[in-house]
Amino acid sequence: MSEHASPLAPPTLAVVIVSYNVREDLAACLPTVLGHTAPFPTEVIVVDNQSSDGTPEMVRAEWPDVRLIEAGGNLGFARANNLGIRASSSDYVLLLNPDTLVPPGAIPSLVRALATHPEAAIAGPRIVDERGFPELSFGPMLHPVGELWQKAVLSLYVRRVRWVVRRVDLWTREGGPRAWVSGACLLARRSDLEEAGLLDERFFLYTEDVDLCATVRRRGRAVLFAPQAQIVHRRGRAGAADPARTLAYRRQSHVAFYEKHYPRLAPLLRWWIRLRDGPRS
């Protein structure tokens, strides 16, 4: 239990959801969160990155219990999440993608998992797609060797190679410490977030979750995978609208991660991206 909570009172929770032109996804996500976090007192915060699809108007009209923060521009994922984190004062913070669906009991189960592991700063649930196939939502730290392993497994998994599908299913049913867990649904202790300096805002979109996990682990804290909690991720719905820009954000964040954690390898990564993607990248 957090040091901010009474010994007899359950810890408090803030759910921070960053939205950008995802009105339909958010409309499906919010009812799976609101009213499904007992016994933990919860504030749900939507930080809108200046959506043009009527998302803020929908939240104000249909979800009066949700706290809406209009960012005034597209701040990116990390900076917008930080805005929501700073606007709250809960013991725990759940960063949740708007393209998720949260089954009843999943959030309380995740909070309990983190609360019963005082050595852990962060916990992530088992994540499945709409057909029930699990995501490999954790993995080795971002590094050339780890990336090669992850990409090799994923390339076989998306082709539904039977033994790989079985292996991924087994991996995602075994809890314990991990190098990182996915920011699609990431629960953190506020004290650890603050000691880490919140999310690094040099990451506009992508890789900020891996960076945050690396930061807390460097401080001697653990990252926990908790498969007893499970959510549905309707992956790719937002990025599919502008795949070129999505790829550019991935590239930028990839390079930023290497510049921060492996500065000697960053020039090699930039060279590889130029070689693979051509001079316009």
Reconstruct the topology from this structure.
Elements: E1 13-19, H1 23-33, E2 42-48, H2 55-62, E3 67-70, H3 77-86, E4 92-96, E5 100-101, H4 106-115, E6 120-128, E7 138-139, H5 144-158, H6 162-171, E8 176-177, E9 180-181, E10 185-189, H7 190-196, H8 208-218, E11 222-233, H9 243-261, H10 266-277
Parallel strand pairs: 1-2, 1-4, 2-3, 6-11
Antiparallel strand pairs: 4-10, 5-11, 6-10, 7-9, 8-11
Helix pairs in contact: 1-2, 9-10
Structure, explained:
The chain has 281 residues and is of the alpha/beta class. It folds into two domains: 190 residues, Alpha-Beta Complex (Spore Coat Polysaccharide Biosynthesis Protein SpsA, Chain A); 40 residues. 40% of the residues lie in helices and 20% in strands. Strands 1, 2, 3, 4, 5, 6, 8, 10 and 11 form a nine-stranded mixed sheet that branches. The chain has a two-stranded antiparallel sheet with strand order 7-9. Helix 1 packs parallel to helix 2. It is globular and about 50 Å long. The mean pLDDT is 93.
